[in-house]
TrEMBL record:
UniProt-listed InterPro entries: Homeodomain-like_sf, HTH_TetR, Tet_transcr_reg_TetR-rel_C_sf
One GO MF term attached to the UniProt entry: DNA binding
Domain of life: Bacteria
Protein name: TetR/AcrR family transcriptional regulator
Signal peptide range: none
Entry keyword Ribonucleoprotein: no
One Pfam family named in its UniProt record: TetR_N
HTH tetR-type domain: residues covered: 15-62
Length: 199
């Protein structure tokens, strides 16, 4: 993407945020560029200035935006998992986020639309998971220095994403609530295997 002035970057971000809201509400397949132009009060020439390849560029930008939100909405707890109280607050924040969106997972919808075979999409998703795992692993090291932090972080993310998948399939938040709560409790107890995977 070409370098933007601060004003240009702000305008592009405003368009992306407006498009993201539309896509969350209606799904990527049901939102066109005309809808985005109307919702963001953007001219056609302005839209193509920031997104030269049209909807494909726009969806990619929205996917990157939504990936950032996945992590941003877990703060400040995700970045400060230094006590069990912070772990519990983080768990509650994660569950509340998914309970609010229920079956409407914008990032899943976007990746389904764009396809993970696209290297740009794959880069957005793998980058998000890498940063997510690193922050959880740092928290594991803070409260259980005897644990295999990377492995525990992988298990915790698996509990969240597995629960989120079941939420989309069944509209039942309990899979996420129980899976994440049990994973954290296992870590706290120092249970080998499913929890802290002690060395």
């Amino acid at each position: 993407m070409r370098a933007l002035t601060p004003k240009g970057a702000a305008t592009r971000q405003r368009i992306v945020e407006g498009a993201a809201k539309l896509i969350r509400d209606h799904g990527p397949a049901n939102v066109g560029l005309d809808d985005i132009r109307a919702a963001t009060a953007t001219s056609k020439s302005q839209l193509f200035h920031y997104f030269p390849d049209g909807k494909a560029d726009m969806l990619l930008a929205v996917a990157a935006h939504e990936a950032e939100l996945v992590l941003d909405e877990q703060q400040p707890y995700l970045g400060d998992l230094t006590s069990w109280a912070q772990w519990e607050a983080w768990r509650d924040r994660v569950i509340a986020r998914y309970a609010a969106q229920r079956r409407r997972c914008p990032l899943s919808a976007l990746t389904a639309q764009l396809g993970l075979a696209d290297p740009a999409v794959e880069g957005i998703i793998t980058g998000m998971y890498s940063r997510w795992q690193a922050q959880i692993a740092a928290g594991v090291r803070a409260v259980r220095p005897d644990a295999d932090a990377e492995r525990v972080a992988t298990q915790l993310i698996g509990a969240i994403t597995g629960g989120a998948t079941m939420l989309v399939a069944t509209d039942d938040i309990r899979y996420l609530e129980i899976g994440l709560t049990e994973a954290i409790e296992n870590l706290r107890r120092g249970a080998p295997g499913a929890g802290s995977s002690l060395r």
